[in-house]
């Protein structure tokens, strides 16, 4: 952990604000700064105090300081007795202690009070997943996406859950949705290509080939897509028996091109590794 002994309370608050803006958890540092510097000055930060306390609560839960976190949650519940946000903190504390049924009950109360509360609905999916109830988590997340169809992270999670239970056609549908939301993200095309390749069959192999090609068009350095294209092309060569077939010729050309690109990438990697080893030997010799 870094040392921040010379920082004033205002400087510490600025630092914590910077971490929040950059989505940096640094939980042990946050708890230490709260205990040693900010706790005695928390009332000096106006409305920012409550954002700060939220950061502290989650940091304490990360560090398994459940008693301290519950103390802060209790103080906030006295100040805001009907706050759904404070109830989310209670659910998070129960979830951290693996009291999953109690956490689900609290989340249900929040959702019943506000059906559009997206964070509570997503936490419910996370709790079900933590319990190993994958099919229940899938149902919950599918219901969530009926109301929040533009949530890219939710589509990604649903795709992963379907892959866990080997429902590849539904995972492919989720991957297609992700491409609609992020058409220029090469990883989205690669994911769909991987799924289609796993599903097998000529039709899926042709689709996998198309999406691997699009991946490489967006990012020519994607080695996984190159290897995937090579495997797909070789698979299609076995499917198209006729040597004069135009599709077989296309598969042959793609196979040779992908193989040459992979070989070139391997040579580049070896050359870089050799250069690194040479530089290290020179520095050691000095």
Describe this structure in words.
By secondary structure, the protein is mostly helical. The protein is about 80% helix and about 0% strand. It has 14 helices and no strands. It has helices spanning about 10-20, 25-40, 50-60, 65-80, 85-95, 100-115, 120-130, 135-145, 150-165, 170-180, 185-200, 200-220, 225-240, 245-285. The longest helix has about 40 residues, at about 245-285. The radius of gyration is 26 Å and the shape is elongated. The two termini are about 35 Å apart. The model has no long low-confidence stretch (mean pLDDT about 90).
Which radius of gyration do the C-alpha atoms yield? 26 Å
Q: Classify the helix fraction into a percent range.
A: over 70%
Distance between the termini: 33 Å
Secondary-structure content class? mainly alpha
Q: What best-fitting shape do the alpha-carbon axes yield?
A: elongated
């Amino acid at each position: 952990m870094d040392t921040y002994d010379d920082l004033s309370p205002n400087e510490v608050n600025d630092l914590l604000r910077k971490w929040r803006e950059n989505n940096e958890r640094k939980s042990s540092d946050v708890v230490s700064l709260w205990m040693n510097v900010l706790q005695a000055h928390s009332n000096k930060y106006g409305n920012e105090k409550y954002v700060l306390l939220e950061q502290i609560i989650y940091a304490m839960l990360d560090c398994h300081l459940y008693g301290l976190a519950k103390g802060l949650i209790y103080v906030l519940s006295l100040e805001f007795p009907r706050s759904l946000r404070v109830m989310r903190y209670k659910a998070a504390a129960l979830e951290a202690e693996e009291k999953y049924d109690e956490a689900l009950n609290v989340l249900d109360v929040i959702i019943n009070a506000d059906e559009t509360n997206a964070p509570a609905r997503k936490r419910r999916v996370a709790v079900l997943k933590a319990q190993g109830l994958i099919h229940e988590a899938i149902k919950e997340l599918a219901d969530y996406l009926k109301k929040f169809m533009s949530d890219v992270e939710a589509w990604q999670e649903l795709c992963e859950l379907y892959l866990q239970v080997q429902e590849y056609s539904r995972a492919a549908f989720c991957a297609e949705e992700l491409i609609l939301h992020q058409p220029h993200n090469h990883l989205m095309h690669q994911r769909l290509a991987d799924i289609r390749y796993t599903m097998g069959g000529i039709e899926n192999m042709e689709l996998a080939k198309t999406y691997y090609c699009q991946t490489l068009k967006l990012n020519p350095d994607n080695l996984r897509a190159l290897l995937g294209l090579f495997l797909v092309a070789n698979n299609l060569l076995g499917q198209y028996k006729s040597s004069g077939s135009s599709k077989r010729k296309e598969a042959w050309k793609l196979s040779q091109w992908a193989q040459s690109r992979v070989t070139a990438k391997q040579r580049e990697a070896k050359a870089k590794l050799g250069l690194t080893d040479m530089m290290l030997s020179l520095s050691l010799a000095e």
